[in-house]
Automatic annotation (TrEMBL):
<dbReference type="GO" id="GO:0004081">
    <property type="term" value="F:bis(5'-nucleosyl)-tetraphosphatase (asymmetrical) activity"/>
</dbReference>
<dbReference type="InterPro" id="IPR015797">
    <property type="entry name" value="NUDIX_hydrolase-like_dom_sf"/>
</dbReference>
<dbReference type="InterPro" id="IPR020476">
    <property type="entry name" value="Nudix_hydrolase"/>
</dbReference>
<dbReference type="GO" id="GO:0006754">
    <property type="term" value="P:ATP biosynthetic process"/>
</dbReference>
<keyword id="KW-0378">Hydrolase</keyword>
<comment type="similarity">
    <text>Belongs to the Nudix hydrolase family.</text>
</comment>
<dbReference type="GO" id="GO:0006167">
    <property type="term" value="P:AMP biosynthetic process"/>
</dbReference>
<dbReference type="InterPro" id="IPR051325">
    <property type="entry name" value="Nudix_hydrolase_domain"/>
</dbReference>
<dbReference type="InterPro" id="IPR020084">
    <property type="entry name" value="NUDIX_hydrolase_CS"/>
</dbReference>
<dbReference type="InterPro" id="IPR000086">
    <property type="entry name" value="NUDIX_hydrolase_dom"/>
</dbReference>
<dbReference type="Pfam" id="PF00293">
    <property type="entry name" value="NUDIX"/>
</dbReference>
<protein>
    <submittedName>
        <fullName>NUDIX domain-containing protein</fullName>
    </submittedName>
</protein>
<feature type="domain" description="Nudix hydrolase">
    <location>
        <begin position="25"/>
        <end position="157"/>
    </location>
</feature>
Length: 165
């Protein structure tokens, strides 16, 4: 009888221990569900593709002395090159966390509904991004990597339809 093969299981027992959490860091962020109407009058949403190929919305840290609304508009300008935008209101707040070596980072993200007042063709991605693109609604929902943002996108579309934005 052959000896049992334990090599397959070693990976479960020889894990290198990660450093324990030494600090909890809170990071307030803001972003926007950005939309436009294309030449045919159809609603399109802007998504950016991060360095890990995940599609999401433009967002970033709220800087000192800045409101969440100001941060959302600034980040959309910085990340997408869109300066002609109109803030239409708050959609919701998302909470998530991740580990950064020995820190637990708690993110709270304010999300706003933002309409582009230009044609939106001036979008340009930042160097760290893998992509930036306008998507029809259902394609944007399908591409979106984060369920919580997807839910806010549904809420955004409902508001766009109800208020004929």
């Amino acid at each position: 009888m052959a000896a049992p093969q334990f090599d397959k299981f070693k990976k479960y027992f020889n894990r290198t221990k990660r450093p324990s959490i030494q600090e909890i860091v809170r990071e307030p962020t803001a972003g926007g569900i950005v939309f436009r109407r294309n030449k045919a009058g159809e609603v399109e949403f802007l998504l950016i593709q991060d360095h890990k190929d995940r599609w999401t919305i433009p967002k970033g840290h709220i800087e000192e002395g800045e409101t969440a609304q100001q941060a959302a508009k600034r980040e959309i300008g910085e990340e997408a090159g869109l300066m002609d935008t109109e803030m239409l209101g708050w959609l919701g707040k998302i909470h998530f966390r991740y580990r950064r070596i020995d820190k637990l980072v708690l993110i709270s993200q304010q999300v706003y509904l933002i309409r582009v007042t230009s044609d939106g063709e001036e979008i340009q991605k930042e160097e760290w991004m893998n992509g930036i693109k306008w998507f029809p609604f259902f394609e944007a929902l399908d591409a979106m990597e984060y369920e919580d943002i997807g839910k806010l996108m549904l809420l955004a579309m409902k508001r766009i339809r109800q208020e004929n934005l």
